From TrEMBL, chains A, B:
Gene3D superfamilies: Cobalt-precorrin-4 Transmethylase, Domain 1, Methyltransferase, Cobalt-precorrin-4 Transmethylase, Domain 2. Pfam families: TP_methylase. Residues 9-217 form the Tetrapyrrole methylase domain. It comes from Fuscovulum ytuae. This is Precorrin-3B C(17)-methyltransferase. PANTHER family: COBALT-FACTOR III C(17)-METHYLTRANSFERASE-RELATED.
């Protein structure tokens, strides 16, 4: 440990989907020991101010700057917690921190911890029943950081492989047409009766949950606070619940 | 609510990968209110006995019996918690409960709650860095409930789709040869330098973590307490960490 690094550290912590009851004790302890909280504005807003704690909210799409700032503060001996919604390793700040670390050999010895959280798709699945009860994929539908052709390629492989799917960032004001295209691709690959759950803001007061068939699904059922879960061929309803059985019979030619 | 159902309920709760610090407050509260705990022996062993609480440990592979028992106890007014390791919706008891419910119209009105937990792959990913930082799949390698041909089909689609992958139940004494075959399939689909992390018993005193290349991976690196994480083509090391970048360039012909 070099003199400039003292006892600082960077912790990347998952706050879960919204409710305090879904924040792990490990994360709560890290927040209690922090000197600085770094993160996207709405996530930092979830942290209660207290003496000795500095909040550093920042805008969306500045993940690398945020990570650099955290590494620099840790080098000054600060205990920095970068907060993510859900799990920090699922389409969130953990990868951004390592991308930043790769460009900063002077910070290579930083004490780093990644603390898992309840990711949105699992909170949503629990509310709906067990739609991810068999093999599944998680796909970020945003094309901020990848070409949409890559999204399409993955959708088709996921469908053809018989996976259930969870979509993060399905739709935003800047790209409303893409989720329309996603539904078209799903309709080419899956039967019309395939079940889709739209789960918005799970575990918050704004929670909304609805399950429809692929034939009934429309683009405006999703927004950026929604996780979309597409079942596999066997996913079905029992009462108000949606679940995917654990068993798979031998493959057939049926769609 | 029929007279036989009184105020009973069935809660399916995820205990996370092992450490108490990874159990959500929501689950802790449910356990505190329970009259009965149902589950696989090692998971029930994690629950501290107390007056008024009956523990019902059962063997592996009796998931449906366990779920039936829980439904019947709830009908007698008991507050039953079915405990799962990790998240109950990921290759665990939530689907089994709904399968049981489907066969029991007399229990259709049961008050059911599914409480999410930290699933093994996300705890493992956090320890390793952020290997699931981009699109990924979760695959149960056990062929107890599906033909191995289905496992193979999914592996190939996951690899060809450019997904990172997390494998649950990679290897058991009764089918040691299958993980050998999984590695062969991966070698057909992925480049030899592909990174694979073997994460055993994360967050417990028996935790072990190692990352090797696909060329170096051997079947005995996994057992039933291991989660295996295969990166995508871009997954790389930075210092002692393994991570998958958030960005994907336009697809190329490169393997």
């Amino acid at each position: 440990m070099t003199p400039t690094q003292q006892a600082g550290r960077v912790t990347v912590a998952g706050l879960g989907p919204g409710a305090d009851a879904l924040v792990t004790p490990e994360v709560t302890a890290a927040l209690a020991e922090a000197t600085d909280i770094v993160g996207y504005i709405p996530y930092v807003a979830r942290i209660a101010p207290r003496p000795g704690l500095t909040l550093h909210p920042s805008d969306n799409r500045v993940e690398l700057d945020r990570a650099q700032t955290a590494l620099d503060m840790a080098a000054q001996g600060r205990h920095v917690v970068i907060v993510s919604s859900g799990d920090p390793g699922v389409f969130a700040m953990a990868s951004a921190l390592f991308e930043a670390l790769e460009t900063r050999p002077d910070r290579a010895d930083t004490d780093i911890r990644i603390l898992p959280g309840i990711t949105a798709m699992l909170a949503a699945a629990a509310r709906a029943g067990a739609p991810l009860g068999h093999d599944f994929c998680a796909i970020n539908l945003s094309d901020n950081l990848k070409p949409f052709a890559e999204v399409e390629r993955r959708l088709r492989h996921a469908a053809q492989g018989g996976f259930a799917m969870a979509f993060y960032n399905p739709r935003s004001k800047s790209r409303p047409h893409q989720f329309t295209r996603v539904l078209e691709i799903l309709r080419e690959e899956c039967e019309p009766a395939r079940l889709i759950t739209f789960a918005r803001a799970v575990s918050t007061p704004e929670e909304q949950l609805s399950t429809v068939t692929l034939a009934e699904a429309t683009p405006e059922m999703a927004d950026m606070r929604t996780v979309v879960i597409v079942g596999n061929e066997a996913t079905r309803r029992v009462g108000r619940w949606v679940y995917t059985p654990r068993s798979v019979p031998a493959p057939t030619d049926a769609e």
